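Record 1 of the preview.
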Amino acid sequence: MQLEFYKYQGTGNDFVMIDNRSETFPKEDTKLIERLCDRRFGIGADGLILLENDPETDFRMVYYNSDGNQSSMCGNGGRCLVAFAKKLNVIGNDTTFIATDGLHHASVADNGLVSLQMIDVANINKSNDHVFLNTGSPHHVQMVDDLEHYNVKEKGAEIRYGDLYGKQGSNINFVKKIDDKTFSLRTYERGVEDETLACGTGATAVAIAMNATGETDATSIDLNVEGGKLVVSFDKEAGKFINVFLKGPAEFVFKGVIEI
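->
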């Protein structure tokens, strides 16, 4: 069987995109998904995303980590899927779609930047050396002194598999403050089990955590990720972060066919 796919990336966070409106993709074949995402024996990606029909919105997003398992929300993946839906003429410049964490609104600007509304965040757990919150996926946020030379894979894995988060684990973000509205971050992603060049839900978590802990008063925050730049904006209402938007590039890389 031949499978048509598209490759997209958002600040270096890359994804295999499949139009599954015909419902022909073998969704339970985790080994196949893992192989497709493999950078040596497959297409190569941080994750695989299916675009499917939904009776109440423009489309449904189904996201798999590169280990082949279906996972929680992926912010950059969501933005790339919006760009993919536009390329397929499923949507125009504005859309509403459903994902595992609920309803999302998004828009594509004339310059190609995609702005994606994320979930509201009310629960932020602050500890002495880190913050934990869920922005569609669980995120540990921790400031470090030497971000550029920090061993993200080793230290991230220690926390992800440690006693703090149990069997489910968490994504781990290490952060450095650049100025009052700019932060740099590097992310260890569960499911990928390595550092990725960007993480959308991670960037969102960092922006909210930095505001919640008083590191910034800004409500529009610039995030430097390894693969580029993202912007997260939000409103605060009675301690809750609402109207949360993740904005950045979402670019088509190539289209292909692979035998499965």
